[in-house]
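Q: Got a minute? One more chain.
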Amino acid sequence: MSLSAILTQAFNFFRNNISQLAMLLVPVLFIQVGIQLWLSLEINAADLENPQFGTSHMVAMMVLLLVFSFLIAALTLFLEIRSQGHSPSNAMILKTSLNFVPTLLLAGVLSGLAVVGPFIVLLAINPMLGIIGLVLSIYLFARLAFVNFMVVVERLTPLEAIKRSFTFSGPITLKTITVLLIYVPISLAGGVLALATQLGGVPLQLIGEVVVAFFGLFVNVALFRLYMVARDDSDVQGNLE
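A: Always. Here it is, folded:
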């Protein structure tokens, strides 16, 4: 299936299910974005010459990771169940999603370290090598973009999910990168909206960032559709062999 067809199907799914997605995920997004906004304000207010980060900031970071893992679990579980033709209740999805949080958290930390590792190491060696490291990190990000689906849909352990995502994404790396590039216009729109809402104070800024974050979830929907199509194609080829 062509990438344009995959994106069209993902867009139609997102549009047709936007009400339930909003009711399911927007409350979680308010918590996530609220923590991010508070941390951002704390960083901006910190003394650049002697920044002080205490226990409250560490706790906030841990809670942020947990909330993000819960968000991804809920979204992925919703996508899986809806793709099977079922209509799950939000309460059931949220309750079941809790089971995946520990695994997703560990998988996210491990894959995150694998992605940023080349950039940090090469940048530390030589700033010019940082460009190569950035390219490698983007490539690894695309290869590990399906880790969440491997955990939730295929019920793999963190290490198994990372290995499986890297193997699975090989033939569709360019398509994956193209889908991930959708983040660019969404981020640019988010930046413009952030500037516009800053004048309205923190509450308006929070609402604006939640809106951008919600529509940014379309990328996850598109990746899931790409994952389902590629998995079906792989199963067909396996049967033919």
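A: Residues 236-241 have pLDDT under 50 and may be disordered.
Q: Perfect, thanks.
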